[in-house]
Amino acid sequence: MLCRSNDELELLISQARAFAGQGEVAQYIPALAVAHKHELSVALYYPDGKGFMAGDTEENFTLQSISKVLSLALALIDQGEECVFTRVGKEPTGDPFNSIAKLETNKPSKPLNPMINAGALAVTHMIKGNTAGERFERLLDFIRCLTGNETITYNKEIAKSEFETAHLNRALVYFMKEHGVIDEDVEELMDLYTKQCAIEMNCIDLARVGCVLAMDGCDPDTGKQLLPIDVARICKTFMVTCGMYNASGEFAINVGIPAKSGVSGGIMGAVPKKCGIGICGPSLDEKGNSIAGIKLLEMMAKRYSLSMF
Ligand code: DON
Question: EC annotation (predicted)?
């Protein structure tokens, strides 16, 4: 039985919230450090267009790494599968999301997958448009279409804060430029990427995007095909193998749904053929995943038999 009650979700939130104290909000992007550690929200979106939610659902949060799934979808639509995977690989790393280590040791020198920062930067590089501004507008329009929410935009303060402090990501871009993975202006790509990561929404919008992926690219409200089936399939596969970084294996065993996390504390879940899930809880574990969010997903997976394995 799937959950169709806000009260039931509220109960799960109150149990999961207790774990928030064991983590910390992200510090390396200064504007994220002011987030409230004990906030937690969840929404479920079903293929019949119905949604359920609980917790601090009105709070907007930035997508951060969750945006990597959506930029990948757009790059696949723009460039095709063959072209995209000439610049980025398909394998999990077992390393932290911002690691540079395997970029140097892997030959040829291309990022191992699109979910780590290096891979996501290479993917954002492939989004089509005449200018960086036009590429960002195309990504924003694409995300507005997936959420069904025309008001989606980005948080200027958080984008600026990351742009000013993203020394490690700049290093990744310079390294990839040296090796021919990227051939555009570094600052332009950094501007586009940091805006992409700062795109904001609430957990209901996020659950709806998860539902589109869960339904193989189909809009839950209109039945329109928003993404090619293969693009949705590739995105969900990366969510399983790399979506929670070096915690992806443990998460697959304990939860068992395609999911993607971000350092703002967001997690998007796509339960194949069943529902989309949007969560935000800014307190993170040592691997950069929402600590209460993961607990909540563990509880939900057990209670509603969500694991696909
Ligand atoms: O590039 C970064 O470091 C951030 N904008 C996104 C990283 C992130 O969300 C990692 N996820 N847990």
Answer: 3.5.1.2
